[in-house]
From TrEMBL:
InterPro entries (UniProt xref): C-N_Hydrolase, C-N_Hydrolase_sf, UPF0012_CS
Domain CN hydrolase, residue spans: 1-247
Protein name, per record: Carbon-nitrogen family hydrolase
Organism for this UniProt entry: Streptomyces cadmiisoli
Keywords: Hydrolase
SUPFAM superfamilies reported in the protein's UniProt record: Carbon-nitrogen hydrolase (SSF56317)
MF terms (GO), sorted A to Z: hydrolase activity
PANTHER family found in the cross-reference section: DEAMINATED GLUTATHIONE AMIDASE (PTHR23088:SF27), NITRILASE-RELATED (PTHR23088)
Pfam families with a match to the protein in the record: CN_hydrolase
Similarity section: Belongs to the carbon-nitrogen hydrolase superfamily. NIT1/NIT2 family.
Domain of life the protein comes from: Bacteria
Length: 276
């Protein structure tokens, strides 16, 4: 299986329309890959909080249209990163609904096969955490003849229980678009490897380059195999990271080292004991 992670740079001097056209062109250049991945909130920048509402679009808006066409032209499965989605309000009123950080996944024929609303919002009562709603559904996508993808986004990477849920839903490969800051880059690499090892799955984590609202981005998109070995890692700038890997290694790893079978579920914490 061949995957290409497009670590696009977000430049505040570039319009969203221009970056959308540029991203679509980069996707088309990956013809021959099986799966192409874009980062989180690449239309606006993950830390450009003031732009979320202004640049929000419906699920089937301009980014949907551009990415569906690009996936078709390239003949690839496309995880188109995430967009600031404006959902319809109750009663179907356009332009008044809640905002979500929503990932879009397209088939090689340009069909939208999955949309994932980010569950864990970053900000600690600021930024994304208060401006966007939280998703409440785990999402997996079967790529016939290739692998089953579990979808997560950026800050989700810090919450292992989400990935356990994806494994239980059949995930063999995690695809994680992100807008991860440079100042916590060591966490990015460490957590990507941890999620791969503990779940015996591939991790394809695609970050952004450039600067979002003054926040330098980590870049360093990474592909990790089920044993935690880094198969490929990007640098800090804009680039396309392409790697070939064997999806069957997931089943082999889980059979050779069947740690997942030893999971103990439903353990309840004891009541605290008080000594008189």
């Amino acid at each position: 299986m061949r995957a290409s992670l497009i670590q696009i740079a977000v430049d505040e001097g570039e319009s969203v329309d221009s970056r959308r056209r540029r991203a679509a062109a980069l996707v088309r250049q990956q013809a021959g890959a099986d799966l192409v991945v874009l980062p989180e909130l690449w239309t606006t920048g993950a830390f450009a909080h003031d732009e979320f509402a202004r640049q929000a679009e419906p699920l089937e808006g301009p980014t949907y249209e551009a990415m569906a066409k690009a996936a078709t032209d390239a003949g690839v499965w496309l995880h188109a990163g995430s967009i600031p989605e404006r959902a319809e309000a109750e009663g179907g009123t356009a332009g008044e609904g809640a905002l979500y950080n929503t990932s879009l996944v397209f088939s090689p024929s340009g069909d939208l096969v999955a949309a994932y609303r980010k569950i864990h919002r970053f900000g600690f009562d600021r930024g994304e955490a208060v401006l966007m709603g939280a998703g409440d559904e785990l999402v997996t996508v079967r790529l016939p003849g290739l692998t089953t993808v579990g979808v997560a986004t950026c800050y989700d990477l810090r919450f292992p229980e989400l990935f356990r849920g994806l494994v239980d839903a059949g995930a063999e490969t995690f695809v994680i678009p992100a807008g991860w800051p440079e100042r916590r880059r060591t966490h990015w690499t460490l957590l990507a490897q941890a999620r791969a090892v503990e779940n015996q799955a591939y991790v394809l984590a695609c970050g952004t380059a450039g600067t979002h609202a003054g926040v330098a981005q980590a870049g360093h998109s990474i592909v990790v195999d089920p044993w935690g070995t880094v198969l490929a890692e990007a640098g800090a700038g804009e680039e396309v990271l392409t790697v070939e890997f064997e999806p069957g290694k997931v089943a082999q790893t889980r059979e050779q080292f069947p740690a997942l079978k030893d999971r103990v579920l439903g353990v309840v914490a004891p009541e605290p004991r008080h000594r008189s």
